[in-house]
Fold each of these.
Amino acid sequence: MGIVAPALPAFAASFDVGVTAASFVISAFAFMRLAFAPVSGKLVSRFGERPLYVWGILIVAASTSACAFAESYWQLLVFRALGGTGSTMFTVSVVALLVRLAPPHLRGRASGLWATSFLLGNISGPIIGGFMVGFSLRLPFLTYGATLFIAAMVGWLMLRKSTLAAPDRDNTVPPLTVRQALHHRAYQASLLSNFSNGWAVYGVRVALVPLFVVEALRSTQAMAGVALSVFAVGNAAVLMISGRISDQRGRKPMVFGGLTISALGSAALGFSDSVPWLLACSLIAGVGAGLLNPAQNAAVADVVGAKGKGGPVLATFQMAADVGAIPDRGRHRGRGVVPDGLRRHRPDQRARAAGVAARPRDEVRGEGVGPGERGGGGRPPRRRP
């Protein structure tokens, strides 16, 4: 996921759309995850985690690869949205499997280990993706799709004969329903905290930080990738520690502390006026999210129980983050942002960004050059006293 984060807003903007439309490409993925989550929960309960795990990865791989060949904004939007269905199949099935396999006294650490492995990709992904953007906005999507096909094959090979991953056929224990789970205050609190985390991390941060770095700080898309990676580093640095403490001291301290630190780091991000300040705020917010994640997942696992028969319950928990990942988009005057690297792309890509990449640099950067202020023959714009 991290490898396309620096490229996705700029790739959408290269089709000559505004920032709101470019950000909606990210929201569409989250919206489809949200809409398909209840179906994924029922499918996991019916067919088991193993087949849903593999099929989910394959769907995301195919849809992401298709994004690389999008010839219009609407094609990119549809392909990206379709990937959300596979993504929710994968995440619900994986969490359900972890809940079923991890004993209660190790759930925090098991969740922290899984989240750490996930974030190792998020640490390296944005840096690699930011580097790839300099060559082609399509290259990160092709790389993402290829690695997912490999991951699906590896997962299938490792799980196909596993007795631990086999579907639980014990019908004496009825599955936990969402209505029953909502009677637990821990589950209610987990839904609220997951919504907050999804809004701040997966919605606002991923959608707007790359654009904020380019427009407000006048830096590069590669630096946007570094900022996202710094957030992931802070996150990964404390996941295992948080999981261990949540197993020993309880879930509440880590959830409360993580939300508080994440809120401070996210709020300070809005006051960033330099790249070092941006990176420092990203690190703090990452630490907060890292403290929150294992304890939050372990709390939901405690509610579901050792049998793990709660696909819809886990899907609803996941939906809370996806609702948060569809943030309000402020209106933005002017056209989309196209990085300087786009000018080195193929002529057909430059043509799609007509009115942006082809305009003078000071116009693209919004320095107040309006119609009629630039005369013929390359004269500089008229300046008022």
Amino acid sequence: MESLRMFKSTISLSCFFMFLSYVTILKPTYASKECDFPAIFNLGDSNSDTGALAAAFNWTPPPYGETFFHKPVGRFSDGRLIIDFIAKSLGLPFPSAYLNSLGANFTNGANFASAGATIRPPETIIPVGIFSPFYLDV
């Protein structure tokens, strides 16, 4: 009975990610002309980190975002992230990582996402030491 419930949960999760892929990659949806968003602000973890952890600690594991940007940009992906597609659909530039303030332009928003980020302070999570020090209160 437990294995059936886990199977259904896995199928549901797989369907969700297939739908998300379809909506964001295969069939991009663009913002209506009536929308006028001057900026975009993002909070998140490695799924939307555009270089914050790399800026803070000067280290990011490969692939760094090299395939799309043709140089290491500190991302935990090999190209653009969902936040980049959202910004593009709104007619905004890719959001800059807040911790990467040198040369960044925050007039169109900022990306506060950091790989390994959590909601709770890292010392309240076991095991300690494998999460980003940038949690929601920071």
